[in-house]
C-alpha cells in the first residue's frame, strides 16, 4: 500500500505546478558536493535523527598524501554533504596495524542501541595486493568514537562485508569472497564468529544464474530480507540482481524481475574529472563492479544508492527512489540525472 | 685480376638482386579522414643504387581518450639488398633520434636540421623516434618487408584477390577451406574475415585490413575462425580493430610478418590454437599482444610496442584446461606505456582465475625498452572472466632467461598464489638485467607472497 502512495507522490512530483506547491526533494546524479573530489564508491547510507549519514570507499587525492581517514558524511537533502566526523584515523595507527592502508566498503549498523562500524581492511606493507579482511568497531554514538574490536587481525578474509540481524536478534556477518557469498553468526560482544562461515550463494544453488558475485547488500523491509548483488560479464555488461529470503541464512530466491539494473560500457562516463600528477592518471579498472545499497528515507520510501561507472572516470554517488515490494524492487526513474520525490 | 673480376661480378649480382617495391595509397587516405591520412609529421624516402623513391607515410589517429600518443605514422615497403632510409621531420627539427629495436644496431646519420638517414640490409619492423621517454606524441614506424614470394594468380578459383584500391567487404567475409586471400600492396580492405570448420587457409600480401568503421567491442575480431586447422597469415598490416586482431580456434596456426596496430581496450593481438607459431610480427596494441593460452605455442623474433593497457604476453585470465609447452624467445619490446597499478599491466602476466594447471613456459632473450613498469605479474586469483574452482588452478615450472630491461622500474614485480589450492611454484629466473644491473636478489624488485609460492629462484 505504502509503495502505491509513493508512486503517486512521485508521479505528482513530475507535474511542474504540483511540484512547485509541495515539499519536493530534488537532486542531480551523480552527486559530488562535499564528497571526496577524486571519487568514492561502495556507498552506505543510513538515517539517524532525521539526517542522512553516508560512508564509503574513498579514492585518494594524489596531491594530499597525509590525509588517510575514514570519514562519515551527513546531509539533509542528498545533494550536499558535509563531513560529520572522523571514524578512523589511519595516520595514527601503528605501521603494523592490519588495516593501516586500506579501508573498503565501510558500513555502520545500529544494533541494540550500539553502533557497529564494519570495514574491509589491509596493510599494504605486510600484505600487498592481498585479500582484505573484516574489521569491526563499536561506539555508543553514531559519530563515535569507535573502538576497533579486532585490532590484532581480521576476523575473516572478506571483500565486501556487512551485518544483518535475524528475527531472533542473532546478528550475522555476510560477505563476498572469490565470487561467492558467505554468512556466519557473529557475537558482537566478543567480535567472534559463532560458527564457521557457510556459502549461501554460489554456483551450486544459483545454477545458471551464477556468475561471479560482487558487493552484496542485505536490507530487511517488513519481514523480508532483500539482497542486492552485482555481476560483471566480459565485454563490460554489469547486472544488478535482487534476491529475497525470510531469513539471512536463506534460502534465497532469485527474483523473476531481475536484473534491477543493466549497465553497458556505452553508458560509462568517459570524462575524467580531476587533474593527476601525470597524463591519463586515472586508472580504469579491468573489472567493473557496481555496488548498490537499499535504504529507507527520512520520511519513508526507499532508495538505492550506487556509484556511477568507474570504468573510464571517477565514480560518484547516485541515488534513485525505488519501489520495494515483497518480491520486487523497481527504480522509479532509473539512470536519470534529475531525480525528485515529494516528501509526504 | 681474377679477384677483381669476381668482386665486380658480385657487385653486379647484388645490384641485380637489390630491389624496392612501394605501394600506392588508396584514394580514401586523405587529410580529413578521421582514421587514416597522410602523415603531416614525416616524409620517408628510400635510396638504393642511386635511385630515390618517396615512400608514402600513413598516419592513423589515436581513438581512445587514454591513448598517450596523438597518432602513429608508418611506411611500408618490400625490398632486397640494402636500402638507405631518409626521414624528414616536417614540423620540427631533429634534436634527438634513435631507431629501435636495439638489436638491429642501426646507426643514424643526421643529414641536416630536420633530415636523418640510416641503412638497413634486412627486413624488420623499426621505430624511428625523435622524442625521448616511455610516451611519445608522434611515433613513426618502418615496416621493411622481404620481397614477396609465390604471389597468387588472380585467376585461380581458390584465390580471393584484393587488388590495389579500396574494398569494403562487410563484417563477416567468409573464407572457405583451401582458399588463399591475397591483399595486394596498395589494397585497403575495410571489413572482417571469418571462417568456420575450415582448413588450409592462407591470408597474405602487403595490403591493409582495417576495422575503422567498427566501434570497440561492437563487432567480432578482424580475423575470426572457429575449428580452423592449418591457417597461415602473413605480410599484411591490420589496423583499427574493434576487438582482437586475430582470434583463431583450432590448431596448427602460423603467423609471419603481420603488422598490427590498434587503440582500444580489447584490441588484443593474436590468440590462436595449439601448435601455433608467431614469428616476425609487429604489435602496437592496447590490450594483450599475444595470448599464450594454448599448448605448443612458439613466439619468436617479434617487436612489440605495448600501449597503456594489456600485457605483451598474457598467460591466463581464465584457463580451464591444463596447458603448457610454450616458448617465447628473441623478443624486442620497444616500449611499454604502462602506468596504472592494474592487475593486467606487466610484460609477462597471469591473473589466473581458472582451474587449469599451467606449466612449462619458457621465455628467453627478451629486451624491454622504454619502460618504467613491472615485468612480471604472475598470480592465481579469481576474476570475473574465470570460472573459479576452489580446488584447482596453478602456475608452475616457468623459466625466464636473459632479460634486459632498459629503464627504471617504479613498481615491483608480483608473484603470488591465492591460497594453498592455487599455488605458484618453480619459477626460475636467470640472467635478469634491470637498468644495467644483474639481479641477484629478488627482494629488490619483487613482491613474492610467502604463503602460497615456493621455489622462486634467481641465478646469474
The name of the CATH architecture of chain A is 5 Propeller
Report helical residue fraction of chain B.
Answer: under 10%
What would the CATH topology of chain A be? Answer: Tachylectin-2, Chain A
Task: Report, as a whole number of angstroms, the end-to-end distance of chain A.
Answer: 14 Å
Shape of chain A: globular
Keywords (chain B): Carbohydrate metabolism, Glycoprotein, Glycosidase, Hydrolase, Polysaccharide degradation, Repeat, Signal
Protein name (chain B): Glycoside hydrolase family 49 N-terminal domain-containing protein
InterPro entries (chain B): Dextranase_N-ter, Glyco_hydro_28, Glyco_hydro_49_N_dom, Pectin_lyas_fold, Pectin_lyase_fold/virulence
Family (chain B): Belongs to the glycosyl hydrolase 28 family.
Short description:
Chain A is mainly beta and 344 residues long. Helix content of chain A is 6%, strand content 45%. Chain A has one domain (2-342): 5 Propeller (Tachylectin-2, Chain A), CATH 2.115.10.
Describe the structure.
The complex is a heterodimer of chains A (344) and B (460). Chain A is mainly β. Chain A has one domain: Tachylectin-2, Chain A. Chain A has 3 helices and 24 strands. In chain A, strands 10, 11, 12, 13 and 14 form a 5-stranded antiparallel beta sheet that branches. In chain A, strands 15, 16, 17, 18 and 19 form a 5-stranded antiparallel beta sheet that branches. In chain A, strands 2-3-4-5 form a 4-stranded antiparallel beta sheet, with no helix packed on it. In chain A, a hairpin with a 2-residue loop joins β22 and β23. The radius of gyration of chain A is 19 Å and the shape is globular. The N terminus of chain A is likely disordered. Chain B has 3 domains: 129 residues, Dextranase, N-terminal (Dex49a from penicillium minioluteum complex, domain 1, Sandwich); 128 residues, 3 Solenoid (Pectate Lyase C-like), CATH 2.160.20; 150 residues, no CATH class. In chain B, the strands form 4 sheets. An 11-stranded parallel beta barrel of chain B has the order 16-17-19-21-24-27-29-26-23-20-18. In chain B, strands 1, 2, 5, 6, 8, 11 and 12 form a 7-stranded mixed beta sheet that branches. About 2% of the residues of chain B have low confidence. Chain B is built from 1 helix and 38 strands. Classes of the chains: A mainly beta (344), B mainly beta (460). At the A-B interface, loops of A face loops of B. Chain B: Keywords: Carbohydrate metabolism, Glycoprotein, Glycosidase, Hydrolase, Polysaccharide degradation, Repeat, Signal. Chain B: Belongs to the glycosyl hydrolase 28 family. Chain B: It comes from Leeuwenhoekiella parthenopeia.
Amino acid at each position: 500500500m505504502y509503495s502505491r502512495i509513493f508512486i503517486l507522490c512521485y508521479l505528482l512530483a513530475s507535474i511542474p505546478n504540483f511540484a512547485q506547491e509541495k515539499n519536493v526533494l530534488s537532486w542531480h546524479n551523480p552527486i559530488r558536493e562535499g564528497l571526496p573530489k577524486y571519487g568514492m564508491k561502495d556507498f552506505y547510507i543510513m538515517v539517524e535523527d532525521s539526517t542522512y549519514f553516508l560512508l564509503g570507499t574513498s579514492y585518494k587525492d594524489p596531491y594530499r598524501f597525509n590525509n588517510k581517514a575514514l570519514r562519515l558524511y551527513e546531509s539533509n537533502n542528498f545533494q550536499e554533504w558535509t563531513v560529520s566526523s572522523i571514524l578512523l584515523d589511519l595516520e595514527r595507527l601503528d605501521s603494523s596495524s592490519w588495516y593501516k592502508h586500506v579501508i573498503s566498503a565501510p558500513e555502520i549498523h545500529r544494533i541494540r542501541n550500539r553502533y557497529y562500524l564494519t570495514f574491509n581492511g589491509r596493510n599494504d606493507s605486510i600484505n600487498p595486493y592481498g585479500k582484505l579482511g573484516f574489521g569491526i568497531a563499536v561506539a555508543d554514538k553514531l559519530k563515535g568514537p569507535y573502538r576497533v574490536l579486532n585490532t590484532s587481525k581480521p576476523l575473516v578474509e572478506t571483500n565486501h562485508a556487512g551485518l544483518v540481524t535475524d528475527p531472533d536478534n542473532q546478528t550475522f556477518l555476510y560477505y563476498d569472497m572469490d565470487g561467492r557469498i558467505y554468512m556466519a553468526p557473529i557475537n558482537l560482544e566478543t567480535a567472534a564468529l559463532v560458527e564457521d562461515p557457510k556459502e549461501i550463494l554460489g554456483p551450486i544453488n544459483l545454477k545458471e544464474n551464477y556468475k561471479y558475485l560482487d558487493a552484496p547488500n542485505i536490507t530487511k523491509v517488513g519481514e523480508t530480507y532483500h539482497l542486492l548483488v552485482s555481476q560483471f560479464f566480459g565485454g563490460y555488461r554489469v547486472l544488478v540482481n535482487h534476491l529475497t529470503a525470510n531469513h539471512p541464512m536463506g534460502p534465497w530466491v532469485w527474483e523473476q524481475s531481475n536484473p534491477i539494473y543493466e549497465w553497458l560500457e556505452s553508458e560509462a562516463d568517459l570524462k575524467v574529472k580531476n587533474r593527476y600528477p601525470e597524463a591519463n592518471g586515472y586508472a580504469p579498472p579491468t573489472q567493473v563492479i557496481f555496488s548498490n545499497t537499499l535504504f529507507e528515507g527520512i520520511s519513508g520510501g526507499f532508495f538505492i544508492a550506487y556509484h556511477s561507472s568507474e570504468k573510464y572516470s571517477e565514480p560518484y554517488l547516485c541515488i534513485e527512489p525505488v519501489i520495494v515490494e515483497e518480491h520486487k524492487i523497481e527504480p522509479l526513474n532509473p539512470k536519470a540525472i534529475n531525480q525528485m520525490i515529494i516528501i509526504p | 685480376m681474377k679477384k677483381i673480376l669476381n668482386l665486380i661480378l658480385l657487385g653486379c649480382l647484388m645490384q641485380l638482386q637489390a630491389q624496392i617495391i612501394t605501394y600506392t595509397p588508396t584514394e580514401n587516405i586523405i587529410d580529413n579522414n578521421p582514421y587514416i591520412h597522410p602523415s603531416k609529421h614525416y616524409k620517408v624516402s628510400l635510396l638504393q643504387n642511386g635511385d630515390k623513391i618517396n615512400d608514402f607515410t600513413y598516419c592513423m589517429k589515436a581513438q581512445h581518450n587514454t591513448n598517450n600518443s596523438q597518432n602513429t605514422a608508418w611506411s611500408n615497403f618490400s625490398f632486397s639488398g640494402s636500402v638507405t632510409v631518409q626521414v624528414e621531420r616536417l614540423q620540427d627539427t631533429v634534436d634527438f633520434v634513435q631507431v629501435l629495436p636495439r638489436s638491429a644496431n642501426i646507426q643514424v646519420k643526421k643529414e641536416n636540421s630536420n633530415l636523418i638517414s640510416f641503412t638497413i640490409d634486412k627486413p624488420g619492423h623499426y621505430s624511428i623516434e625523435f622524442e625521448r621517454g616511455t610516451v611519445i606524441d608522434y611515433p613513426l614506424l618502418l615496416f621493411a618487408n622481404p620481397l614477396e614470394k609465390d604471389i597468387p594468380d588472380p585467376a585461380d578459383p581458390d584465390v580471393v584477390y584484393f587488388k590495389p584500391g579500396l574494398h569494403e567487404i562487410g563484417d563477416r567475409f567468409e573464407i572457405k577451406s583451401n582458399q588463399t586471400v591475397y591483399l595486394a600492396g596498395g589494397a585497403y580492405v575495410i571489413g572482417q574475415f571469418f571462417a568456420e570448420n575450415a582448413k588450409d587457409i592462407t591470408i597474405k600480401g602487403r595490403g591493409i585490413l582495417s576495422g575503422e568503421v567498427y566501434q570497440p567491442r561492437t563487432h567480432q575480431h578482424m580475423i575470426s575462425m572457429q575449428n580452423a586447422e592449418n591457417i597461415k597469415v602473413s605480410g599484411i598490416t591490420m589496423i583499427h580493430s574493434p576487438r582482437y586482431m586475430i582470434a583463431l580456434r583450432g590448431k596448427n596456426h602460423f603467423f609471419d610478418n603481420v603488422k598490427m596496430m590498434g587503440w582500444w581496450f580489447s584490441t588484443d593481438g593474436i590468440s590462436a590454437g595449439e601448435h601455433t607459431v608467431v614469428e616476425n610480427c609487429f604489435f602496437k596494441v592496447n590490450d594483450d599482444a599475444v595470448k599464450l593460452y594454448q599448448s605448443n605455442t612458439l613466439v619468436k623474433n617479434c617487436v612489440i610496442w605495448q600501449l597503456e593497457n594489456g600485457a605483451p604476453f598474457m598467460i591466463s585470465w581464465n584457463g580451464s584446461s591444463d596447458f603448457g609447452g610454450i616458448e617465447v624467445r628473441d623478443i624486442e619490446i620497444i616500449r611499454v606505456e604502462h602506468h596504472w597499478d592494474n592487475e593486467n599491466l606487466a610484460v609477462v602476466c597471469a591473473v589466473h582465475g581458472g582451474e587449469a594447471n599451467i606449466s612449462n613456459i619458457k621465455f628467453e632473450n627478451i629486451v624491454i625498452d622504454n619502460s618504467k613498469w613491472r615485468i612480471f605479474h604472475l598470480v592465481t586469483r579469481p576474476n570475473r572472466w574465470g570460472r573459479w574452482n576452489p580446488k584447482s588452478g596453478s602456475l608452475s615450472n616457468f623459466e625466464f632467461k636473459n632479460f634486459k630491461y632498459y629503464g627504471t622500474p617504479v613498481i615491483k614485480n608480483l608473484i603470488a598464489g591465492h591460497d594453498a589450492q592455487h599455488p605458484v611454484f618453480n619459477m626460475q629466473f636467470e640472467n635478469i638485467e634491470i637498468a644495467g644491473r644483474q639481479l641477484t636478489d629478488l627482494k629488490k624488485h619483487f613482491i613474492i607472497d610467502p604463503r602460497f609460492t615456493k621455489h622462486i629462484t634467481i641465478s646469474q
